Amino acid sequence: MSEVILELKELSTHFFTDHGEIPAVDKVSLKVHKGEIVGIVGESGSGKSVTSLSIMQLIPQPPGKIVGGEISFKGENLANASEKKMKKIRGNEISMIFQEPMTSLNPLFTIGNQMQEAIRLHQKISKKSAIDKAVQMLKIVGIPRAEEIVKEYPHQLSGGMRQRVMIAMAMSSYPKLLIADEPTTALDVTIQAQILDLMKKINQEEDTGILLITHDLGVVADICDSVVVMYSGQVVEQGNKREILKDPQHPYSQGLIRSLPKLHEQDKKLYSIPGTVARPKMNQVGCRFAPRCEFAFERCFKENPALYDLENGRKSRCFLHADKEGERIADATITRS
Q: Which pLDDT value is given to residue 325?
């Protein structure tokens, strides 16, 4: 396996609100290797985006704060890095593509103006050279008539074009790590495919590590190498993409995959996991997924499950995988008590 460029070690990010302290990210650990695409999946409210914003040190303070753990980037801990240090890293060594490009691009400035500003922030080049670089990057991401696009404003471009501009801007310094937060949300299927193909191309040609945040398992199946499944602020399963999609071990992962529409079952009602994602609480007792789990039994409501090590480096946070007298409990016939 290639070198690790990003490693989260029990990262915890809490929000301090009028309703109390909320552990939005609770001891999350994961790795991204050079040239690897890691997908973080889960329903809305699982903590995916907060994890990515924590890496970039973009959590609004107050009410949010990183309260524990490490963010190791190329061997250096960024969890307590100064703003001056992060400004050198953001957009240079770590870039991020945000979920909605229209809110990420300033409507008052042209595409070229915004791109050249981002380029010159990290590269000591003239304004003209920066514009030339912007045009070059727009061509690389497949935008036609790039020389004209740099003179236009965000509202003059389609959603797919704006997202390509964001990718071009993110890749302008050839970062070691690219964080993509729902990069294909609200785009039509054809544009989605083009954006994903572009990300795969960047990953393969530049050996860029990518952390892809999504709720779309189809996207994960298409481009990811490994998967991290999050629920209510915690990692509940992680491992190789092929193994998790083919044989999920955590009941939540199983529910997500059962929710996918199947072409040969068009006449059947689409499955959905009952209930909604529980808001994380401090000192919570019991498995957070237990109230929605069809396999939950008494222990699930009284103890907090660990992230158990399975075969081939896989992990699952479920008592179905706890060892009992040296033997693993893996009997999926256990029913809700």
A: 33
Going by C-alpha positions, the residue among 171, 174, 154 that lies closest to residue 162 is: 154
Lateral strand order in the sheet of 4-17: 20-33, 4-17, 64-73, 76-77
CB atoms closer than 10 angstroms to residue 286: 15
> How far is CA 215 from each of CA 19, 155, 257, 279, 326, rounded to the nearest angstrom?
27, 27, 11, 18, 36
Q: CA nearest 6: which of 47, 67, 55, 40?
A: 55
Q: Among candidates 178, 215, 241, 181, which has minimal Cα distance to 41?
A: 215
- Position 30: which residue type? L
pLDDT score for 323 = 54
Residue 104, pLDDT above cutoff 70: yes
Reported as a single tens digit per residue, the pLDDT across 261-318 is 776 666 678 788 888 888 888 888 999 999 999 899 999 999 999 999 988 889 999 9
Q: What is the C-alpha separation between 61 and 12, in angstroms, rounded?
A: 15
Tokens read off for 215: 């709720």
223-238 mean pLDDT: 95
Rounded CA separation 317/178 (Å): 27
In sequence order, which residues have a C-beta less than 8 Å from that of residue 327 and are 6 or more positions away? none
What mean pLDDT is predicted for residues 74-78? 87
State both tokens at 124: 């000591």
pLDDT at 263: 67
| CA–CA distance, 7 with 24 (Å, rounded to integer) | 19
Q: Is the pTM of this model over 0.90?
A: no
Strand partners, 226: 38, 240
Residue 126's φ and ψ, nearest 5 degrees, are -75, 165
